[in-house]
Amino acid sequence: MSRIAYVNGRYLPLRDAAVNVEDRGYQFSDGVYEVCEVRAGQLIDERRHLDRLAYSLKELRIAMPMTPGALGVILREVVRRNRVHWGIVYLQVTRGVSRRDHAFPPPGTRPSLVVTARNLDLAHSERMAAEGIAVITLPDNRWERVDIKSVSLLPNVLAKQAAREQGAREAWFVDKDGRVTEGSSSNAWIVTGDGKVITRHVDHGILKGITRTVLIDVIAAQGLALEERAFTVDESYRAREAFVTSASQIVMPVVRIDGRSVGNGAPGLVATALRREFHRFTETA
Ligand code: PDD
């Protein structure tokens, strides 16, 4: 079965799905994206993802390409046409096609919209969660507005590749004061020796993950203590547990940081329980 993508009004086999060479996403990374989990063929937390999309677009002064309702119809159609059972749907909006010039294109230039979807390997993800993953840390060299989910991801790409080359699954960015901001494609969390769950506060310095937002409800329901504050790399080395969150990984235990074992070196009880309970707190349409 050939995969299908939505590109500016048309559903096309992936091999024919292309954007114009003067698309500003291609020329300038002038665009934003969202990744939504698909579970049992259903979109998870569509409303929150489309709200964050609207926020990213507003911050960059790109128009919403259509109403959230119409976007939702396309997302679901792409999921259906690709027979996604468990996986992700990807949506990208750019400032559109125009002769290359850094400044904004003429008024009326239509934003471009691309949607793709694919199955992921749930069994593989579960195996990884049962084993836990390794992370490395490296300096956060991104721009100062990473709260915008921009497709401009070069530092994230290089960080993820550095992780891969060191046998790790994720890289944690560290600010100038030695504090972890977030992962290259996930939010970062630790559980302290006295059982407090810590994740960095939100401001312009991290992406406000949808998984992070939902997990805060799960944490409250489990009666766990949460602190939204920065933590240092050193604190993470001494943590009882660590984990990362994202739409595709849900809650993924971290068992090694920079080659040092976290806690007893196995996925922690808190991370495991939060992963198990997570979908009782998400929204499905
Ligand atoms: N990444 N921080 C960064 C830098 C991210 O790229 C992501 C998500 C997150 C977690 O956000 P959420 O919980 O809404 O997925 C945090 C997506 C999945 C990606 O780039 O593939």
Distance from N terminus to C terminus (CA atoms, Å) equals 27 Å
Instruction: Name the bound molecules.
Output: N-(5'-phosphopyridoxyl)-D-alanine
> Which percent bin holds the helix content?
25-40%
The helix count comes to: 8
Main structural class: alpha+beta
Largest sheet: 10 strands, mixed
What's the overall average pLDDT, rounded? Answer: 98
* Poorly predicted ranges: none
Radius of gyration: 19 Å
Characterization of this structure:
- There is one protein chain.
- The protein has helices at residues 24-28, 46-60, 68-81, 122-131, 154-165, 210-221, 233-238, 269-277, and strands spanning 4-7, 10-13, 31-39, 42-43, 87-94, 112-119, 133-139, 170-174, 179-183, 187-191, 197-199, 226-228, 231-232, 241-246, 250-257, 260-261.
- The radius of gyration is 19 Å and the shape is globular.
- It starts with a strand and ends in an 8-residue tail after the last helix.
- With 285 residues, it is α+β, with helices and mostly antiparallel strands.
- Strand 8 and strand 9 (179-183) form a beta hairpin.
- The strands form two sheets. Strands 7, 8, 9, 10, 11, 12, 13, 14, 15 and 16 form a ten-stranded mixed sheet that branches. A six-stranded antiparallel sheet has the order 2-1-6-5-3-4.
- The protein has eight helices and 16 strands.
- The structure holds N-(5'-phosphopyridoxyl)-D-alanine.
In short:
The chain has 285 residues and is an alpha+beta fold. Helix content is 29%, strand content 28%.
Q: Topology of this structure?
A:
Layout: E1 4-7, E2 10-13, H1 24-28, E3 31-39, E4 42-43, H2 46-60, H3 68-81, E5 87-94, E6 112-119, H4 122-131, E7 133-139, H5 154-165, E8 170-174, E9 179-183, E10 187-191, E11 197-199, H6 210-221, E12 226-228, E13 231-232, H7 233-238, E14 241-246, E15 250-257, E16 260-261, H8 269-277
Parallel strand pairs: 7-8, 7-15, 11-12
Antiparallel strand pairs: 1-2, 1-6, 3-4, 3-5, 5-6, 8-9, 9-13, 10-11, 10-14, 14-15, 15-16
The structure holds N-(5'-phosphopyridoxyl)-D-alanine.
N-(5'-phosphopyridoxyl)-D-alanine (PDD) binds near residues 182, 185 and 187.
